[in-house]
Specification:
heterotetramer, A mainly alpha, B alpha/beta, C mainly alpha, D alpha/beta, B: Rossmann fold, C: 14 helices, cell membrane (chain C)
Chain lengths: ~290, ~270, ~325, ~325
């Protein structure tokens, strides 16, 4: 959903009022969940009980059994095995988006804030223009041009999310450089580059990390949507989005089992990532305010 | 005052002006500063006093006019840093929150002096001692120190570069009264011991009287009165200076005088 | 001052639309290899037909002249002919517009009512209620609309048979009935963000000093909420609404596909799969245009709800 | 612990605008209780301006806010705060609303954030009266009259304008008009002139003084500036670390301070006239009650402290012209 992307822009600027000093149980649980999902996806080829495309026709569209812990889909494929294998693409694609977006967005935002003037105006205007494209539309356009697959949509999404990261980094940097310590360092003879690298960047890094995390969650939803529409991952490869798409016919026959686990996988992963990102951005706003 | 008459000139501002978009923040301001003297820049909000301070240290560039440091050899940002340092009003954000006070004090030493690590650290200890901070406070992060302690640390950091001039922009305005007095005494002693010159920007006439030898009074970007501090405060020539003085609260405060002073000033504006 | 503001905001909107047009037109030219064979993969064409298609898409001209030619038609609201359906893009869009507009407005109404309501309750009731609100909104933000769509289909259409599983109905009443599940699917996936952002806005107002002053004057709680908290949040509310509408429009691509609703969203997905470029370009322009128009309106309305903007002259 | 509300009109007519006695406030922060005020007592008589002076952490703002029942969250409050005959501690929500609408009002530090920026000034000025049920036309008339009183030109037009169209000084005049609109018996001014320029401060202080004298209302003037308090107020209450340390006539406090803290405050202020004396600052930093040592909270900073200062909290007792909470007051004249 591209409304989620809107949140990135606004959530970062809206001050949170929650205060937290130690990581809450929720944050710990989120980190644990993400850790398990990541490890499981890496080990997937070793630990899957069945081949992901092996069919067990006699047990199709089944609920959890001792043979198939999470049941089977409409063609009798083992849901657990497919979930584990699907996790690889489901995690890697948004990771790529988050990494590219964060790197480019941080660089642009920081440069715009520090250089200012016409450069800032051009960068900000360009980001405004990209912002007018819903991220999902950019991903769909990429498919229209380059055909179904993940590489083009990943690049398109990375581009689409740059304004969110870029704007937040820019405003955080502008806020930071207004503090007298930045002026002090200039008066002490340090170069602008040294001040940026040694002081401004480290102080806004938590905000950047929070945005990277949130971007990962949003990109995951976009890519899952693309695969659900049949425009992303192409068979025989699978990710969670395409698993949900393949469960649609079973659902229409009244069998809800087949959507439960892939649906939960997406929701819980995005939830965990968002909890993590929000706690990071809370910590940052807390730190910057307790300094007053 | 004798000490301000004998010293050589270390700073000369000539016809300084600053425009922000279409508003004139500073309008044709000139003054000079002698070695070892302390110049007060007095005014209310919008007087251009802070902008003037920022032009002296190079944080703003003048739209016209010039800031010269006669007899100075260094050039560029690092060269100017050896000549003039600045203390800001807000003690809470004067330091990078991630590094300790001692590290923050050592940073400029590394930039400006080719010293060994031991020598730098010895100098940091000396600076902390000079402003009355303990070694333990030096090892702390800025946020664990009080406003007054941070302002002392900021002074120590500036002293480390051994500048000829220290610009203080409302440096004691944010502090509690009892802390403000401590910092004023410290500043007064430092100037006496080191022969450093001050440009002391403030809205508080009593503080300016305590810490400066000479003063310029600014209003709407212009200098309306200049002279030796004691003389200007004892016998103000400009109606605005008189109004400022009358406005300072004291027992037996004559608020009617303030009203008349304001009327006089307003009528002046209309005739000029 | 205010006229300069309006002027610069309109100029920005026009520039954005211009760049969007270049990108959307240029996408056709970005196709690796020969666009015509890529687009028509799977169908057998004579070389005359190929040449005609090349001519029609403006591919035998340079980029600039091709673009100006295309833009000229678009400005006359002529998006050309669909390569799949054969009919004009305008007819395809016009037939589907009522359905999609209804769906977007329906979902927006649900999302705003629920989102703003939750935001107000969460902001004014710290503690357990606020905490529950945070969990619910987090879930909403993390849930993809197609998962909600499938669950709604399985439960309410297939098992309980309360709502139809597919189609968009005949007549307005039937259409609303058919669009209820799709609208709920969109709402579930979007209200959380509305609630989150508005909660932060309300909170910020609630702790502001003018609210403290009103409290110190004995102004009743409801009046404080109405006159100080909600009133001062109208600006962000308008921005959210503008963004929400644009997001819901592109979101229809997912739920219309899930529910088999014959609207613009589904048309977009089908056209992308079949690389029906004239249709894709038209809907893409529509999507960007919707965002530009709604956010420009929100920005231009801001000076009327917040007098400060008129004076300061900043729109962002 | 909680006195019952005395609400009879006969009592109200005779009552002082403000009577605080033995007020202690403790707040719960992260499961720890943190004391803010310890047995604060002070009063404001009709027609009197009382200065409440202290540095950060002294509890002066908490004390003044308590008069409106504006206590910090999770606070345990003991003692008594009586405003115009109405007990605030333990008062019902309805009683508090009535108190704030009719008896007492507050002027805050920053006029720019005190007034809702998106609403017209007329809304701000009439809000207090409208909350009480006064009709729109009558509230408008009162507000326009008050704007004239505080020196706003073309008051009818000002009612339709927005806060950002006025300077800070003008806006604080409007805030004062708003505070006086309900005809309060008590006005609380919390650093009401601190954010203003010196010349503007003088004008606003003159205005406050005139309006207060005309209406005969009582005023509690909270400030960190002892000289301003001495210039404006009839009596002064000096607070340190959540306790009253000295109180007396303004002239007496200024000319003959007894508490070493008051002496230190005066010694910390550079003088504008007379000899350019050396400053005699107080060592250390001002403390809040929660971090203060046992016994006299000031003893770690006090130049004349003796071991006995640690044993108990000194009570206020008369000493020369003031009342002072120190076991050896006035012994510090030399410093």
């Amino acid at each position: 959903m591209s409304l989620d992307t809107v949140g990135l822009a606004l959530a970062g600027t809206a001050r949170r009022t929650r205060r937290r000093t130690r990581p809450s149980a929720l944050v710990v649980a989120s980190i644990a969940l993400l850790g398990i999902v990541a490890v499981a996806s890496v080990l997937a080829p070793v630990i899957t009980p069945y081949a992901p495309d092996a069919t067990d026709i006699l047990n199709s569209s089944a609920g959890p059994t001792s043979e198939h812990l999470l049941g089977t889909d409409g063609t009798g494929r083992d849901t657990l095995s497919r979930l584990l294998i699907g996790a690889q693409l489901s995690l890697l694609a948004p990771l790529a988006v988050a990494v590219i977006t964060t790197a480019v967005g941080a660089l642009l935002g920081l440069a715009a804030a520090r250089i200012g003037g016409a450069f800032d105006m051009i960068v900000s205007r360009a980001m405004d223009i990209v912002f007018a494209f819903p991220t999902l539309l950019l991903a769909l356009l990429a498919v229209a041009v380059f055909g179904p697959g993940l590489t083009a949509p990943i690049c398109a999404l990375a581009l689409g999310y740059i304004p969110f990261v870029g704007r937040i980094v820019r405003s955080a940097a502008i806020q930071e450089q207004a503090k007298p310590y930045v002026g002090s360092h200039a008066v002490m003879g340090f170069s602008e580059l040294a001040i940026t690298v040694r002081h401004i960047f480290p102080n806004i890094a938590p905000v950047l990390l929070a945005q990277a995390t949130l971007t990962f969650g949003y990109a995951m939803l976009d890519i899952a949507a693309l695969s659900y529409l049949g425009l992303g991952v192409q068979p025989p490869a699978a990710d969670w989005g395409s698993m949900i798409a393949q469960s649609q016919s079973a659902v229409l026959q009244g069998n809800l089992w087949s959507i439960l686990f892939p649906g939960m996988a997406v929701i819980l992963t995005v939830l965990a990532v968002n909890v993590l990102g929000e706690s990071l951005s809370d910590r940052f706003s807390l730190a910057s305010r307790s300094a007053r | 005052m004798s000490d301000s008459q004998n010293g050589e000139t270390v700073l000369r501002a000539t016809g300084l002006s600053k425009l922000f978009k279409s508003t004139v923040a500073v309008d044709d301001v000139s003054f000079s500063l002698k070695r070892g003297s302390s110049l007060g820049v007095v005014g209310e909000s919008g007087s251009g006093k802070s902008t003037t301070a920022r032009m002296i240290v190079g944080l703003e560039s003048p739209s016209s006019g010039s800031v010269e440091f006669p007899g100075a050899t260094g050039s560029g940002r690092r060269g100017r840093a050896r000549l003039v340092q600045m203390i800001f009003q807000d003690p809470f954000h004067s330091f990078d929150p991630r590094i300790t006070i001692a590290e923050a004090l050592e940073e400029p030493l590394r930039l400006h002096f080719d010293w060994s690590r031991e020598r730098r650290q010895a100098r940091v200890a000396e600076l902390l001692d000079q402003v009355g901070l303990s070694t333990r406070q030096g090892g702390a992060l800025p946020r664990t120190l009080s406003g007054g302690q941070r302002q002392r640390a900021a002074i120590a950091r500036a002293l480390g570069i051994e500048p000829a001039i220290l610009v203080l922009d409302e440096a004691v305005a944010a502090l509690d009264v009892s802390i403000q007095a401590q910092v004023l005494v410290l500043l007064d002693n430092i100037r006496r011991d080191t022969g450093m010159s001050y440009v002391f920007v403030s809205h508080d006439l009593a503080v300016v009287r305590y810490i400066t030898t000479d003063v310029i009074v600014m209003r709407s970007g212009r200098v309306v009165e200049a002279g030796q501090t004691e003389q200007v405060l004892a016998d103000p020539q400009h109606p605005y200076t008189r109004l400022l003085l009358d406005s300072v609260p004291r027992p037996g405060w004559d608020l009617d005088r303030v009203r008349r002073g304001r009327l006089e000033l307003d009528s002046m504006k209309e005739t000029s | 001052m205010i006229f300069r503001l309006i002027g610069s905001r309109l100029l920005a909107a026009i520039v954005t639309m211009g760049v969007a047009a270049v990108v959307i037109y240029g996408s056709l030219r970005l196709i690796p290899g020969d666009p015509v064979s890529a687009i028509t993969a799977g169908t057998r064409l004579t070389s005359e037909q190929r040449a005609a298609l090349r001519e029609k898409l403006g591919l035998n001209q340079g980029f600039v002249s091709g673009f100006t030619h295309w833009l000229g038609s678009v400005l006359q609201l002529d998006f050309g002919q669909s390569m799949v359906y054969g009919s004009s893009v305008n007819d395809l869009l016009a037939a589907r517009m009522p359905t999609t507009v209804t769906l977007v407005l329906y979902a927006a109404a649900l999302s705003l009512v629920l989102g703003l309501g939750m935001a107000l309750v969460s902001a004014t009731r710290p503690g357990i209620i606020d905490r529950i609100g945070l969990v619910v909104t987090s879930l909403s933000i993390a849930t993809p609309s197609f998962v909600v769509a499938l669950v709604l289909l399985g439960v309410f259409a297939v098992q309980l048979r309360m709502f139809p599983a597919t189609g968009s109905g005949d007549g307005f009443g039937d259409m609303v009935y058919h669009l209820t599940l799709p609208a709920i699917a969109l709402m579930v996936a979007t209200f959380g963000l509305v609630a989150r952002i508005m909660r932060a806005t309300f909170r910020e107002e609630l702790v502001s000093e003018h609210v403290e002053v009103a409290r110190s004057r004995g102004v009743a709680r409801m009046d404080i909420l109405r006159r100080h908290v909600v009133r001062n949040s109208v600006g962000p509310m308008m921005t959210i609404t503008a963004l929400l509408l644009a997001a819901l429009f592109i979101g229809t691509a997912i739920v219309e596909t899930a529910f088999g609703v014959d609207g613009i969203g589904q048309l977009l997905v089908v056209s992308i799969a079949r690389r029906d470029f004239p249709v894709v370009q038209a809907i893409s322009l529509l999507s960007v245009g919707l965002f530009v128009v709604t956010s420009t309106i929100a920005d231009l309305a801001l000076p009327f709800v917040d007098a400060r903007v008129r004076a300061v002259g900043g729109l962002r | 612990m909680m006195s019952t509300a005395t609400n009879s009109s006969a009592a109200a007519a005779a009552a002082a605008p403000l009577e605080i006695s033995g007020l202690s406030i403790t707040v719960q922060v992260d499961g720890e209780s943190r004391p803010l005020l310890d047995k604060v007592s002070l009063s404001v008589a009709k027609g009197e301006i009382v200065g409440l002076v202290g540095e950060s952490g002294s509890g002066k703002s908490v004390t003044s806010r308590s008069a409106l029942g504006l206590f910090p969250g999770h606070a345990i409050t003991t003692g008594s705060v009586v405003v115009d005959g109405v007990e605030v501690i333990g008062a019902s929500a309805a009683q508090l609303l009535e108190l704030r609408r009719t008896r007492a009002s507050m002027i805050f530090q920053d006029p720019r954030s005190s007034v809702n920026p998106v609403r017209r000034l007329g809304d701000f000025l009439t809000e207090g009266l409208r909350a009480r049920g006064v009709g729109r036309a009558e509230a408008n008339r009162t507000a326009i009259g008050l704007l004239e009183e505080v020196g706003i030109r073309d008051p009818a037009r000002a009612m339709r304008r927005f806060p950002h169209e006025f300077s800070g000084g003008m806006l604080q005049r409007i805030v004062i008009a708003g505070a006086l609109s309900i005809g309060p018996r008590l006005v609380l001014a919390d650093e009401a002139t601190t954010a203003l320029d010196v010349t503007t401060q003088a004008e606003v202080v003159a205005l406050l003084k005139r309006l207060q004298a005309e209406s005969g209302t009582g005023m509690l003037f909270v400030t960190h500036d002892l000289e301003l308090a001495a210039a404006l107020c009839d009596r002064i209450v000096v607070m340190y670390a959540g306790r009253v340390v000295e109180t007396g006539a303004a002239s007496a406090i200024f000319a003959e301070p007894q508490h070493p803290y008051t002496v230190g405050l005066l010694g910390s202020n550079p003088r504008l006239t007379g000899e350019r004396a050396t400053l005699t600052p107080i060592v250390g930093r001002p403390l809040a009650l929660a971090e203060a040592p046992a016994g006299c909270a000031f003893r770690d900073r006090c130049p004349i402290a003796v071991p006995a200062c640690a044993t108990e909290v000194p009570a206020l007792r008369p000493s020369r012209a003031t009342e002072v909470a120190c076991i050896m007051p006035g012994d510090e004249k030399a410093a």
